[in-house]
C-alpha cells in the first residue's frame, strides 16, 4: 500500500486567511491535529504582526502546543528575521514562499521575484547552519490571478535557481486554484516538485491530486475543513480539505496514517473556532461508509 | 478536439431537490440554458404532484419554453402514467430510474428493484411505439446510503436485463456522491454506461469525471450552479456544477459547445431563482482566465 504524506496546513495557511482567533484555539487545533495520525503540520508562521495579525502570537502558540514525537512541525517565514525567530524557537523545518509571477510576488512580498530569490539564497546557509531544512514553495505555479498563465519554463527556472542555491525541498503552490489536470501534467512534465499544494477554488482540487498521483507525486498539503479562503474571490474555497483528500485516498487504497473519524472531528473543531460554516463535503456529509 | 456531451439537469434533478419555484422561473431557467450552447437538457419530470410537488407544473413548463432546435430535451418519468404524459406532451427522450440497491429502490419508488425492472420492460414497447427512446438510469451504482457498497456485478446484471428488454441507453447515477476514482474504475471495468451522472457530495465529482474520461466515457450529466442538494445530508452538495465541469473540460482541451460566460450567467440566474447561495467554485470565483 503506497503511503501518501499529507502535510496539514490549517493552523498556518488556513487560519492566516480567516479572521484572527485566540492563541488558545490555535493550540487546541494543532494538538487535535497531532492526534489524528497526520505526520506533518505547518504550525505557525513567523511574520511581522502588522503584516499578518492572524499569526502575531506564533511564539506563544508554538511554545504551548504539546509536541507529538511522531509529528514533524514546520513554520513559514518571509525573511531573515522570520527565519531567525523560527530557528530560535526550535523549528527545524522552515518554508519560504516565492511567486513565479512577478506581479504576485510584489503584491505578496513587496519585492520582485528575483529579489526574493536573492533573499532565499542568503537564507539557506543560515537555516542549514542551525541544522534545519528549507523548503521553497513556488506560489502561482499553475497560474497567477494578475498575470494569468505561468509558463512551466518559468517555474523550472526558479526551481533550478533555488536548487543550485541549496534549497532542500520544492513545493508548487496553486495559490488561487487555477490548476486543472491538464496544467498539472504540463508543469510536471517540465519540472517536478517534492510536494504539491492545491486549492479547491474551482472544484478541481481532488482531480488535480488524482492526476499528480498518476505522475508519482506522494506528498500533498491539505487543510482541515478546507480552512482558509481565497483572498481574491470572497466566499470561494481555499485549500483542499484534508478530510476530502484522505477520504478519497483511503478509498483508492492509499495509506496516510490518518484516522478519518478523528480528522473529521478536528475539522468540526476548526469550524467552531472560526465560527463560519465550512464547505468541505466530507465534513458536511460524512464519509461514504457512513450509512443512513 | 474530442466533443464531450453535457446533459444539463438543473431544471429537473436540480430543482426537484430545492424548495418549489414558480413555473415562470423554470421556463426562464430552461430558456437561458438552451442559449448557452448546451445540446441536451433534462427539462421536466412527469410524476405525481403529491410525490414531487416541485414538478407539479411539468406540462405547463414544457408547453411554455421556447424550443431550441439545436437542443435535445428529455423528461424523467416514474411509471406508465408518467410515460404517457411525457409522450403526449411531445417528449421523445424519456428517462426512467431504477436503483441497484433494493432498499433505495423501495424508499424511492415503493417497490423492489425487480418490480421496477418488470415495469421498465413493460414501458419500453410503449415508448418505442411513439418513436421515442428510453434511457435507464441505474441509481446508487457506486454505493447506496442505506446498504453501502454495491457490487459492480449487481449493476451489470441490471444493465444486461434492461438491454435485453430493449432499453436504448444506460446511465449510471452516483446518487449520493459515493463514487471515487477507484469505484469508477471498478464499475466500468465490469460494465460500461452511455452516460455518467456524478454528484459532488464528497468533493470527488471532477476527479471521477477525469477518471471516466480516461476510460473513454464522453457523456456526463451536470447541473448549473450545482443546483440540487443531497436528500440524506442536509447542506451537502448535490450534482456536479455544470460550470465547474465545463471550465475544467475546456482547459483540458475538450469541446462542449457551451459558452462558459453564458453558463455562469445562467448559474447566477439559478441562484436567484432558488434564493440560496450555491457553492459552485466557478460561480463564486469565476473561470481561471478571469484576472484580478
TrEMBL record, chains A, B:
UniProt xrefs under Gene3D superfamilies: Aldolase class I
Gene Ontology BP, a term: L-leucine catabolic process
Keyword Lyase applies: yes
Listed GO MF terms: hydroxymethylglutaryl-CoA lyase activity; metal ion binding
Residues covered by the Pyruvate carboxyltransferase domain: 4-264
PANTHER family associated with the record: HYDROXYMETHYLGLUTARYL-COA LYASE
The family this protein is said to belong to: Belongs to the HMG-CoA lyase family.
Protein name stated in the entry: Hydroxymethylglutaryl-CoA lyase
Organism field: Actinoplanes awajinensis subsp. mycoplanecinus
Amino acid at each position: 500500500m503506497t503511503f501518501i504524506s499529507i502535510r496539514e496546513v490549517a493552523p498556518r495557511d488556513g487560519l492566516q486567511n480567516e479572521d484572527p482567533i485566540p492563541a488558545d484555539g490555535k493550540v487546541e487545533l494543532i494538538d487535535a491535529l497531532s492526534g489524528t495520525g497526520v505526520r506533518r503540520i505547518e504550525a505557525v508562521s513567523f511574520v511581522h504582526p502588522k503584516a499578518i495579525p492572524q499569526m502575531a502570537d506564533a511564539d506563544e502558540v508554538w511554545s504551548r502546543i504539546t509536541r507529538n514525537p511522531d509529528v514533524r512541525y514546520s513554520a513559514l517565514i518571509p525573511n531573515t528575521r522570520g527565519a531567525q525567530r523560527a530557528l530560535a524557537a526550535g523549528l527545524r523545518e522552515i518554508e519560504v514562499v516565492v511567486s513565479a509571477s512577478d506581479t504576485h510576488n510584489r503584491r505578496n512580498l513587496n519585492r520582485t521575484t528575483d529579489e526574493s530569490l536573492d533573499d532565499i539564497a542568503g537564507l539557506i546557509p543560515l537555516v542549514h547552519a542551525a541544522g534545519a531544512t528549507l523548503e521553497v514553495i513556488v506560489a502561482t505555479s499553475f497560474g497567477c490571478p494578475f498575470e494569468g498563465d505561468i509558463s512551466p519554463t518559468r517555474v523550472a527556472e526558479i526551481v533550478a535557481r533555488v536548487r543550485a542555491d541549496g534549497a532542500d525541498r520544492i513545493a508548487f503552490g496553486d495559490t488561487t486554484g487555477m490548476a486543472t489536470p491538464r496544467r498539472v501534467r504540463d508543469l510536471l512534465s517540465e519540472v517536478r516538485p517534492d510536494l504539491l499544494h492545491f486549492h479547491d477554488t474551482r472544484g478541481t482540487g481532488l482531480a488535480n491530486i488524482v492526476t499528480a498521483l498518476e505522475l508519482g507525486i506522494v506528498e500533498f498539503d491539505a487543510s482541515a475543513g478546507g480552512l482558509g479562503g481565497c483572498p481574491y474571490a470572497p466566499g470561494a474555497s481555499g485549500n483542499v480539505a484534508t478530510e476530502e483528500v484522505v477520504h478519497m485516498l483511503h478509498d483508492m487504497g492509499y495509506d496516510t496514517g490518518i484516522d478519518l473519524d478523528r480528522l473529521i472531528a478536528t475539522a468540526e473543531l476548526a469550524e467552531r473556532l472560526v465560527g463560519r460554516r465550512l464547505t468541505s463535503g466530507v465534513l458536511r456529509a460524512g464519509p461514504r461508509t457512513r450509512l443512513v
